[in-house]
Amino acid sequence: MRKTVLKCALACCLASSQCLAGTPKGECPNLWKMYGLFMRASLICNFPESNAIRKTLGLLKKDCPNSTQALARRYMTDGFREFDKDMAAKGHPKACGDMFTLMDTVGG
Questions:
Q1: Residues sharing a CB contact under 8 Å with residue 29, sequence separation 6 or more, in sequence order
Q2: How buried is residue 77: exposed, middle or buried, by Cβ count under 10 Å (0-12/13-18/19+)?
Q3: Are 82 and 35 in contact (CB under 8 A)?
Q4: Of 26, 45, 48, 87, which one's alpha carbon is 20 to 30 angstroms from that of 98?
Q5: Are 60 and 29 in contact (CB under 8 A)?
Q6: Burial group, residue 29, by CB count within 10 angstroms (0-12, 13-18, 19+)
């Protein structure tokens, strides 16, 4: 089973104390993409409000306050597409189950 770079980066980053200490320069696009991925999964899979979404949004507010609306929209759209691609490849139940597990790990 192939894991996407985004999922690996998200799990490693948000689970580590380094990420919580501060977002490395240049990581704001990845955080916006992760936020979009989580938001899309939550909508499509009908997940309840998630700690993973809150944590990612908190990091965005803290570490990426100068992000423009255009940048945020661009990278969130990439996150939406990433989830849609995963769902097309795995099917709805598997994609939602994998995302639920990831979001539970990150939000925990």
A1: 71, 75
A2: middle
A3: no
A4: 26
A5: no
A6: middle
pTM of the model: 0.76
The residue type of 25 is K
- Sequence-distant contacts of 68-72: CB under 8 A, at least 24 apart: 71/28, 71/29, 71/32, 72/32
The predicted-structure confidence for 51-75, as pLDDT tens digits, reads as follows: 999 999 999 999 999 989 999 999 9
Which amino acid is located at 82 in the chain? E
Please write the tens of the pLDDT for every residue from 22-51: 445 568 999 999 999 999 999 999 998 889
What is the distance between the alpha carbons of residues 50 and 24, in angstroms, rounded to a whole number?
A: 24
